[in-house]
Queue: 3 jobs
Job 1
Amino acid sequence: ALELSTTLYEIERRAARDDELFALVNDQGAASLALSESGQIMALNTAATEMLSVAAGDGLSALGINRQDFDAFAQRLIDNPEPSLLHISCPKAGGRGKPVLVSGVYYPWYRSFVLTVLRAHWPESVDRALAELYGLSKSERDILKLLARGLGSEDIADLRGRSLGTVRQQLKSITGKMGVQTQLAAATIAASAAAAALSFGDRAGHPAGQLPVSGRQGPLRTGSFSRGRRRVGWRQFGDQDGVPVLFLHGPSFGAGEYPEDRRLAQRHGLNVYAPERPGYGRTDGHDPEEDVLTCQIRDACALLDQEKVERVTIIAHEVGLIPALAMARECPERVRGVLGVSAAPPFVKLEQIAVIPDHQSVFIEAARHAPWLAHLLIRLLIVQMRKLGPQEWVKVIFGDLEPDARVMHRPELLAGIVGSYSFYVNQLGQGFEQDLEMMHTDWSPLVADVPVPIRLLHGAENPTTPPQQLDIFRTLRPDIPIDLVERAGLTLAVSHPHLVYRALAEMARDE
């Protein structure tokens, strides 16, 4: 056990060193963090953790950023790829109402914004940001530039051909608008912004660039609450006045990171709540006093209680079907029905495992026979993911499997792939390990016993669970409809989201 733990420590230390996304923020001397396009913290350095009291997975609200300010910031980066400015909140600096100025830039390779707190730090984008954030006029910004260069009031008056009294009045206006007490403080902020703008360059081989106009599609609201001694993270997207839906995610596609999910939920009038299952995102692993399945049901019900949602339709990706069925059996009055997407059936026959690709089945075999080995394999899996980085981590899941490998190379999916990266790796694969614990047990009674409608959508070319394996579902529950989607694989949820959300909308409105 000692040798194993020592080896894991060294492996994970090297993985952290090689992780490009974390290197992106740790290269900064000041507090720095990476935000996904939807506004979730993907990575942050120690200085940011201590200064801002936030964690990976937190959203805009934890940073005290309202959606309008974030959209305006993103728009500036759409118009001009040079760094811009944004206000965030710093609790340790006197409460969430006190703003801290950060310089931000967009990295196309990572589909992420990197924000760095200005330490004491004028391209066009910074000039525009100062105008929008502080309401500074063109004349006031020109004076601020001279002030940042070290010129005094008299020098500025001579250079601009203005009276000393006029310049002093403008300087007073500048400090008032910027909320500082002295000209030095105003000059320091401006100089810091300019210096930060010039310092952004090539990081980990991938330079900053322009945010695409199509980069923002539908907000992703996040929050967290405590249940007992555990933290539970959650997301919400779609139409907040729409039909309530509970989204129980699988291990591969995040929980609302894909822009098309958010757009389609809005279009179909669905109000989607997605609890982060134990071990994923920000949600702690299950309490030792609860089994994994019970913990997930109670987390989901606690979220619905908090949001005052009485009844939902559940959409479940892959292994998420197990807690979905368990919840429907335990509290059927809260569940209209369950839509399973790319779900594998219960493992009641050993032949089922034989058809699963080796790089996937090895984890199931290890969980069945040697849990300690599964633990090691999952840590090594996380190491490989971090080595590949946020754009290419999905290769460890889909490899050369078709049609899935081809699907995950689609450019329009990149934002979701990058956004799901830290959601998966933040807790070193603890969520996947707990999923294996559920999967290798016989959960077939759940299929037969659930007193609500069940519908399954499945890719006709799914290499992990070939369609013939779905006969187990039909045996357990003959009335279950299974819709096969042509030219779709395990990645059905992201390759054909329009079909998924259409089926979900039909089920959610069918009493």
Note: Residues 297 and 327 are 5 Å apart (CA to CA).
Job 2
Amino acid sequence: YTEGRAVAAHEILDELLKREPHSRIGLLLKARLLLLDKKPDEALAMAKGAAAADPERAADAFLVMAQSHLAKGRTEEAQEAIKQVLKLDPRSVPAQLLQSRLFAAKGEKQPAIDFAQQAVSLAPRDSDARLALIRAVLANGDTARAEKEIRALLREFPNSSIVNAQAGALFLARHDLAAARAAFARSLEIDPASSEALAGLVALDLGAKDSPAALRRIEGRLSAAPEDARAWFLAARTYAMVGNAAQTERALLKTVALEPANVQAFAMIGDLYAIKGDIGRAVEQFQAWAVREPKSVAAHTMVALLLERLNRLPEAKTAYERVLDLDPRAAVAANNLAWLTSEQGGNLDQASELAQMAKSQAPDQPAFNDTLGWIYFKKNLAEESIPLFRQSLEKNPDNALTHYHLGMAYAKLGEDTKAISALKRSLQLDPHLGTAGDARRALAELQVP
């Protein structure tokens, strides 16, 4: 499998499981490979089989179950699976790290730190555990402790690109620009493909008003790796910041062609055409692209997005459905179709399935978490929606719509103080948002003496 011969790897395991259908190790390995193949539901079924085959040694199987649930956005089920892992193996470092990640997603900072600290105590030389601790501590605002930890990690793993990139992010947060630049440069020297390090150096160049240096870095990476979708998206954002609309459009189109799940890139293209005032012409251009390349997910997705921008919603829904016919795992189309279905009074169970699938493709995507959370809210599952809204706001803290959604969820649960705070934040960020009237009415009801 690691040699890139995934089909052969699966064939070997399938032959084993044909002869020994209850082989714990065979079922477990099959589950792990399916998870790597981004097939979490199939992985979950195999992991359950592995657990049933040998309940006393099922910790690894429950760990795969937890990872499979997380890939589908099912945080409560993931939490239960992790509890089973720790019950069977209290010293499981991966389980401790998953717990830390779950608490961090819920905004519960101290438990996130505690579980990361436990993982470090169990595996002091595990760089993943220590990086998790650094991120948890940094999220809690303790930059001094985070710096102490990262400097210790740098001494032990001076040749780790990831460690150096995390150090650069920390130093940048502390406004130590020289140290940040040195750390990002070291990370990139070790691994020229590090998107975090490249983004950090480009940010520093732009902050220093040296846009030619930023563009040289970007274009150098694109020359070295012309199929690097993350580099193209960074290029698009950089071109946008220096005001080069033509190059921004070119970089965005390349991004979505390489990575059709990049919702931010699609949104930027929509904004670009909206600013230019020619969305109708853009629809025609992308429809022509879709005719030339009828199997292009990117072309059909752009048609759907632009039709949605024009408020031609029935056509947009049909276009999103066409995308999903081409690729049933097309995340942007699934998310947006889920949103349109839920907003237009459609089947919420179907919308939920689409939104869960989108989230499984990009678990940290703010828009996907917001969509799934809002559908849960509409299904009267407000308690399950709140972690999704908070996870969305961690990545996109100034999204007025998500603050509105979070406020409404808190209000439904009777947590008035939190609801008022979230709704006020939504109005502060965008007093003219389409939901602003509803937010004001909800606030008026919550603030009645």
Note: The CA atoms of residues 348 and 360 lie 18 Å apart.
Job 3
Amino acid sequence: MENTHDQHSSQTTLARGGPLSDVCDAFEEELKHGRRPQIEQHLAGWEEPERSKLLYELLRLEIDWSRVRGQERSLHAFVERFPEHAEIVEEAFLATAAPEHSGEALTMTSTYIRRGFLGKGGLGIVYIAEDQQLNRDTAVKFIQDTVADNPRSREQFRLEAEITSRLEHPGIVPVHGLGETGDGRLFYVMRRIRGERLDEAIARFYQQNGDASAGSLHRHVRFHELLHHFVAVCKTVAYAHNRGVVHRDLKPGNIMLGRYGETLVIDWGLAAHVGRKGVFKDSNEKTLMPGSGSGSSQKSGGGTPPYMSPEQAGGRDDLGPASDVYSLGATLYTLLTGKAPFGGSDAAEIMDEVKRGEFPRPTQV
């Protein structure tokens, strides 16, 4: 394993033979021998632009070696250590996030060039891509290779793109377009959001501040900022419901907090069109009637067990807005306590707890 990593490192660090590469070599030697060298010490005395170059390489080395040893490192912990270089830290994490997708930039279409890996789920995989026409970074979501030729998955992917694009709200990521590659692989292009997920923000809050009811003005301010984000999520979901759409996978991990106060509900891959008859109050919003995948918008399955409503955990496929509201409640529970409301040993046990409504009161947690 270490031999493979040595080969990878020689390709990703600075060119050998100069002072910067000497520092990288020394840093990597310490990592190889199981020590925990401090990046800050190795940056001492370096001025820009060399300092930024060196920081990027040292971060990549530390992240790579941590993964070799099965130890995941936190992006936000590094951002807090190097706040003036947040973008460099992010780029280093993206460059090492998925080695199987690294390497030379891949031309995805005539317009978009892949620059980095962002993440993946059951149906899609997301990359950073450069829009060559407008000279900007975007996020491009591709249907996964394993389901790229499956008619039902393709229909679901198109439906996700259409619903996301037609829910025009500040709390939903704008979609710029839907397309296919030359070999028929579906993708859609979105605004790239820089920031952190709500689950990461909650974990960081409780790691740094402990009990939210304790003293400290800073702690109270930060806690109320998180509550403010939650209220914004509720407003976004209310908008979707008034368009006749339920999300079906609301949870802290599907809420993005942008760097400039944005709150966005992401990943509408399980969204369903449910209409409004007998459910919604009068609204000026026009009911969204999808043209894509109309036959598959209502289906059971999917979701995240600790945040599912009892009816979703029970496998019902006629979910309505109340199911989303329940998931919002479970999200608020996590914000208030730092823990998900249900914590069984596996998904089946958690869903049994959800169906029985067995969770500790927040005051007990």
Note: The two ends are 42 Å apart (CA to CA).
